[in-house]
Queue: 2 jobs
Job 1
Amino acid sequence: MKSSIGIGLIGTGYMGKCHALAWTGVKAVFGDGPRPSLVHLADVTGDIARQKADEFGFAKATGDWRELIADPEVEVVSVTTPNAFHAEMAIAALEAGKHVWCEKPMAVSLADAERMAAAARASGRVAILGYNYIQNPLIRQIGTILAEGTIGTVNHVRLEMDEDFMADPEALFYWKSEASSGYGALDDFGVHPLSLLQVLFGRPTRVLAHLSKPYADRPTADGTRRAVETFDIASVLLDLGNGISGVMALDRSAWGRKGRIALQIFGSKGTIVFDQERMNELQLYVSTGKSTEQGFRTILAAPQHAPYDRFIPAPGHGLGFNDLKLIECHELLKRIAGEPARVIDFDTGLGIERTVHAMAQSHREQRWIDLA
Ligand SMILES: NC(=O)c1ccc[n+]([C@@H]2O[C@H](COP(=O)([O-])OP(=O)(O)OC[C@H]3O[C@@H](n4cnc5c(N)ncnc54)[C@H](O)[C@@H]3O)[C@@H](O)[C@H]2O)c1
C-alpha cells in the first residue's frame, strides 16, 4: 500500500471545493489508504488558481489545466469543470496515465461519453463519475431492505428530482441555459436518480420522455434577453423490466424545492420512501402486524448504517452532502487499490448516458425507445 497519492484538481467552484474537502478529510475519516497529497490546482486564470490553491492547501497552481495533467507528481485528477470540458480533460488525463474522478454528467454528447469510456479502458486506469448520492448510507440500507425481501416483490418505482435555482423567470441566462451544457434537467438532474436506479435495480429497458421549457428566454448580464436552449423540466415513463414500472419527474424550476431527490419504491408487502432533502432518514411501511397499528416508521441514520460510523459514533446526528463526496473519494481510493468499491465507473456511466440520450430521442420522436 502506497503511503501517499498525488492529487490534481481542475475547477474550484461548487464541486471543486467539494472534491478539495473530500481529498483533505478522507484519511482522517477512514484512517486507511494512502494520504492524499494536494499537488496541483488549475482554474481559468493563474490568479484564481493561486488564490484557491492557497485556500484549499494545494502546493502548485496554474491557469492552464494541461500543465497540471503533465505534472508527474499528479496521480489522480479531479475534473470539476462545466460539462462541456469533461471529455477533453478526462481523456487527456487518462492518456497521461492518471486516474480520473470526473463530475457528472459524463459528457454533453454520447460520442464524447463513448470516447471517454474507450480512453478509460485503453489506459487501464481507474475512471469514475461523481454520483455522490449512491454513497448515502441509507441508500445502501434501501439496497439491503430490498435484498432481504422486506417489502416483497417490487412492482413500481417513482423518482423525482427538483430544485428551484432556475425557478425565477428573471434569473440570469448562464451556462446551464446553453445547449452546449446538454439537454437541461435530463442530464443535469436525471443522471442522479438514474444512478440510484443503477445501484438498486439496474438500467431501464424502455423509456418514454417529454421535455419542456417553463420560460422561453432569460435576461443576460448585458441587459438583453437570450432564448433558453435547454429544457428545465422532464417527465419520463420507465420500464425497469421484471414487471417493474417507473416514473421519473425532474424540474430545475420548482419553487420551494431545494435539493429534492425523492424515491418511492412500492412492493407486494410494503413501501420505502426516501428524500435527499431529509437525507438522514428513511420511511418504511410493512404490511404485516395489526392493521390498527400499521403506518410508516422513520429510520434515522446511525452507526449501524456503514460508513456513517466512520464520521460520527452517535445515531441521529446526521451526515451532510459533502460527506457523500468524501465517501465517494474513499470508494475511488479503494478501486485504485484494486479492492471492491461502490463506484459508477466510465463503463457503467456510459450506460446512464445512453439512457439519457434515449430519453431525449424519445422526446424528439414522441415514442418509446428500447434500451434492451
Ligand atoms: N455531483 C453533484 O452532486 C454535482 C453538483 C453540482 C454540480 N455538479 C457538476 O460539477 C460540474 C461543475 O459544476 P459546478 O456547479 O461546480 O460549476 P461552477 O461554475 O461552480 O465551477 C466550475 C469551475 O470550473 C472552472 N473552469 C471552467 N472552465 C475551466 C477551464 N477551461 N479550465 C480550468 N477551470 C475551468 C471555473 O472557473 C469554476 O471554478 C458540472 O459538470 C456539474 O454538472 C455535480
Job 2
Amino acid sequence: MAKDGSEHFSGGIGINTRLAHSGNNPHDYFGFVNPPVVHASTVLFRDAASMAARSQKYTYGTRGTPTTDALAHAIDALEGSAGTILVPSGLAAVTVPLLAFVSAGDHLLIVDTVYHPTRNFADTMLKRLGVEVEYYAPDVGAGIAALIKPNTKVVFTESPASNTFEVQDIPAIVKVAHAAGAIVMMDNTWATPLYFRPLDHGVDISIHAATKYPAGHSDVLLGTVSANDSCWKHLYESFCTLGCCAGPDDVYQVLRGLRTMGVRLEHHQRSTLAIASWLEGQKGVARVLHPALPSHPDHDLWKRDFSGSSGIFSIVLAGGGQKQQHAFLDALRIFGLGYSWGGYESLAVPVWLGDRVVAKAPYEGPLIRLQIGLEDVDDLKADILRGLTAAAAA
Ligand SMILES: Cc1ncc(COP(=O)(O)O)c(C=O)c1O
C-alpha cells in the first residue's frame, strides 16, 4: 500500500489487509478513513461543452458515485474482476445479469439446485420474454455438453447448491460452455470471494448476495455482480439501462461490513465445522449436508477448488416428516426461525425441495437448514439438542 493510503495491491497481500484497505483512498477525502456517503441524483457540469460531451467522472446518481465506486473497487479487488455493479438485493444480482445476457429465442441452462427465487424468475419472467429455460443436475460436470444447444447463451451455476450443498465442477462446465460460445454465471454467495474466486476458474460473471456475509448484520439488502473483461461493458450498460442502482446508505454499510468479513467468516467457519461434525454423531440425525465434511459426496471437489467454508449447511433427520421437522424448529430457543443467512445470529429453516425437477435425491427424513452465527458453540449445541429431543418425541 502506498504511503498516501491509496491501494496498489498487485498481489502478495493478505486477504484481511485487502479487506481493510481496498476501495477508497482516504486522502481523496481529507484523510477520513471511510468514504463519504454521497446521496445524489443530480451532478452539476461546469459548462455546456462538458455536459454535451459528458466529459467528467460522475454524470448522474444512477451511474455511480464516490460511495458506490469505493465498494465496487473493493469487490473488484476481491473478485479479480474488470468491474462490479451494485444492485438493491441479492436477487437483483441474479436477475440483472440474466436480463442483460439472454434474449428471446436463447436457451438458458440453470442448475436444478438453484436458489428458489432464481428459478421463479426464470420460469415466469424469462419464459414470458421468450427464453428457453432448462434445468440440469448439479453433478453434470463436463456432461453439460449433452445439454448445450446452438442457441445456449448462458450456463447458470450455484455452488454449493442451495439447501442441499452439492458442489459443481465449475472448471469442467466452463470449458464446455466456452467451447460452445456460451458464458457462465455463478451465484457464489456461500463461499464469498474469500473462499472461492469464480473468475479465476473461468466464470464470466460472479454473483453475490452481499446481504449475507459482507453486510453481516441482517439489516441490509444488497447484491454485487462482477464481470471479466469481455462481459463488463455490456453488464454495465445493461445496469444503466435498467436503472437498478442501490441506495448509498446500504452501499456504505456493506463496505463497512467488508472490513470485518474475514474475521467473521473465520469464526463462522470454525463454529460451523465444529457443530456439523458433532451432529454426524448425534442420534436422530441421518446425514449432515456440508461439503467440508469428508463424508460429503462432493468433498474432494470442494477440497480441490475451495479454500474455506462458511456458515450454512443442512441436516437430514432420521425418519419422520413435517411433524418432526416442526417439533425440532419449535423447540429452538437461540436459533431464530427466519430466512436469509450470513448475519451474526443463528437461524433455522425447514427445507422444501418440491420445486426440483432433476436433483430429487431421496432423503431419509425431513431436512433442516442451519445458519451458524457468532454465538458460543456450546450454547448452539444445547439448542440443537433441544430440537432433536423434541423431534424424537413428536
Ligand atoms: C444463494 C443465494 N443467492 C441469492 C440470494 C438473494 O439474496 P437477497 O436476500 O439479498 O435477495 C439468496 C438469499 O437467501 C441466496 O441464498
